[in-house]
From TrEMBL:
Molecular function as annotated in GO: glycosyltransferase activity
Superkingdom in the source lineage: Eukaryota
Sequence intervals crossing the membrane: 58-80
GO biological process: fucose metabolic process
Protein name: O-fucosyltransferase family protein
CDD domains listed in its UniProt record: O-FucT_plant
Protein's UniProt keywords contain S-adenosyl-L-methionine: no
Keyword Cell division: no
Family label: Belongs to the glycosyltransferase GT106 family.
Keywords, alphabetical: Carbohydrate metabolism, Fucose metabolism, Glycosyltransferase, Membrane, Transferase, Transmembrane, Transmembrane helix
Length: 552
């Protein structure tokens, strides 16, 4: 009986179902349409008339996310930091959405729209312990730096942190005199020693030399140790501290990248105080560097600085091939013999496909022109001896005729510094740091150090090439119109333009992205709606490819 009754009910309802079928389909369509329209709410037409459906307020969305972030941060730091990063991107996406009209606003290639909401912060925390007195420290730490100037700078920065971990007194580090560069400059020839010591006085004791009473008892040479790369603080406490307590003086050799990337916030901020404040170039270097900056500024209101690492040693180390035939293979192969632990050279083109090869000067020029920099842009090229000489540089000069180097701007003033590669590198560092846009053709030590500093100092525009994607485009360059090539280059460079959230915290080398030392200011939408960028000449334009998702 129950089954017959159900059958009669279903037959009786069939007509009603058929009559309402169209209405149900409409409701179903509206339901799905409503689900899709968080960002773009449609006009919902119903029987009661046409009215605009309300959107979920973005302030509520961000508030809910931040509330959830606060709850999660009670239990774990890493998850909270990741969610915070995503919430920042959500806020910035809303900013671009409002400014550009459905995400089609211009993007300024000379500066970041959102950099003004961040600032460098490396102050000591309220519970930061004062440094130990020299006489009460656990001993004297000697450091043998390694590599070029910026690689040594990285090592010295970490050495200060290690001295803090060990409660040790740091002796002013010795620079590397024996590497490829053969520069016999001392620390005092490049950096202001007295400033270095006084600035760090609230962090660690620093002395210029080991006291005589220890020198007389010191072994010749002092006891040396080589710490594994990326060692954790606990390794120093377990392995180095006992030796330091026993011998009073220990030297750590080849000290570059010997400390872990991920440290506590106080130690990370100490890294920033060293790298961005304690290092001050000597007066002669500082004055000449800023003289070159002023010469560039007098010629143009703004300029690009390109750190062009295309020296023979760099190309040999990379194992890349640039089409120079047997001559190139032989010359770079001979240089590779200086290193005993390099991997075998891969087949021609394989390294470039993987994005492991420095861009050529010509490729750097093509990338910049494709991004929108005009040929009247002034560029400063910081480099050593370019492999291939003027013939290699000529395509870049043709793309950017306003081409300058330190040798062109101050040939006479440079004469005293010419025998010293580290001092020349310091001059280039100053001019690159002061530039409006900094561009690198590889991800070497100077590129990382300057990228981190420019983030810390206000996220000045810093362009790193997405070498893996760009290499494929350069190979296809002659097979596509310029506007298509330009569009693809812009697409490839998403996330490589020095925006505040290009990289998730903890994903990059800390010296390249000092996330613990970058703080946020309040984000005011209404204030920035009144400051919309209108200079299309220095923007990507209104191509829908570059909406608010451009840096996502």
């Amino acid at each position: 009986m129950r089954g017959l009754k159900g059958l009669r009910n279903s037959r009786g309802a069939l007509a009603l179902a058929n009559n309402n079928n169209h209405h149900r389909k409409k409701l179903k369509h509206n339901k799905h349409h409503r689900h899709r329209c968080w960002l773009w709410p449609p006009v919902d037409t119903v029987a009661m008339g046409k009215q605009q459906r309300r959107r979920i307020p973005w302030g509520m969305v961000c508030g809910v996310m931040l509330f959830a972030l606060g709850l999660i941060s009670l239990f774990t730091g890493h998850v909270a930091s990741n969610l915070e990063w995503y919430s920042q991107k959500l806020v910035k996406h809303r900013f671009w959405y409002k400014k550009g009209g459905f995400g089609r606003g211009p993007v300024d290639i000379w500066k970041s729209e959102t950099s003004k909401f961040y600032y460098g912060c490396s102050e000591r925390g309220p519970h930061y312990a004062p440094p130990v007195n020299e006489q009460l420290s656990n001993g004297y730490l000697l450091i043998g730096a390694s590599g070029g100037l910026n690689q040594q700078r990285t090592g010295i920065t970490d050495a200060v942190v290690v001295a803090r971990i060990l409660n040790a007194t740091l002796v002013v580090p010795e620079l590397d005199h024996f590497s490829f560069w053969k520069d016999d400059s001392d620390f005092a020839n490049i950096f202001d020693v007295d400033w270095f010591i006084s600035f760090l006085a609230k962090d660690i004791p620093v002395v210029k030399r080991v006291p005589d009473k220890y020198m007389r008892a010191l072994e010749k040479p002092p006891y040396t140790m080589r710490v594994p790369r990326k060692s954790e603080p606990q390794y120093y406490l377990d392995e180095v501290l006992p030796t330091l307590l026993r011998r009073h003086v220990v030297q750590l050799t080849k000290f570059d990248y010997r400390l872990a990337n991920d440290l506590t916030e106080e130690l990370q901020r100490l890294r920033c105080r060293v790298n961005y404040h304690a290092f001050r170039f000597t007066k002669p270097l500082h004055e000449l560097g800023h003289k070159l900056v002023m010469k560039m500024r007098n010629m143009a209101n703004r300029y690009i600085a390109i750190h062009l690492r295309f020296e023979p040693d760099m190309l040999a180390f990379s194992g890349c091939y640039y089409g120079g035939g047997d001559k190139e293979r032989y010359e770079l192969g001979e240089i590779r013999k200086r290193w005993t632990n390099l991997p075998d050279v891969l087949p021609d083109g394989e390294q470039r496909k993987r994005g492991k090869c420095p861009l050529t000067p010509h490729e750097v020029g093509l990338m910049l022109r494709a991004l929108g920099f005009n040929n009247d842009t002034y560029i400063y090229v910081a480099s050593g001896e370019i492999y291939g000489g003027e013939e290699t540089l000529q395509p870049l000069r043709e793309l950017f005729p306003n081409f300058y180097t330190k040798e062109m701007l101050a040939s006479k003033e440079l004469q005293p510094f010419l025998p010293f590669s580290s001092r020349l590198a310091a001059i280039d560092y100053i001019v690159c740091d002061e530039s409006d846009v900094f561009v690198t053709n590889n991800n070497g030590n100077m590129a990382k150090i300057l990228a981190g500093r420019r983030r810390y100092m206000g996220h000045k525009r810093t362009i790193r090439p997405n070498a893996r994607k760009l290499s494929a485009l350069f190979l296809q360059r002659e097979k596509m119109p310029w506007d298509i090539f330009s569009s693809k280059v812009k697409s490839a460079q998403r996330g490589f333009m020095g925006e505040p959230d290009d990289i998730k915290p903890g994903r990059a080398d800390f010296h390249e992205y000092p996330s613990s030392c970058i703080c946020k200011k309040p984000f005011n939408f209404s204030h920035h709606d009144n400051q919309r960028t209108t200079n299309n000449a220095s923007s990507y334009g209104h191509n829908e490819e570059y909406g608010w998702w451009f840096y996502s």
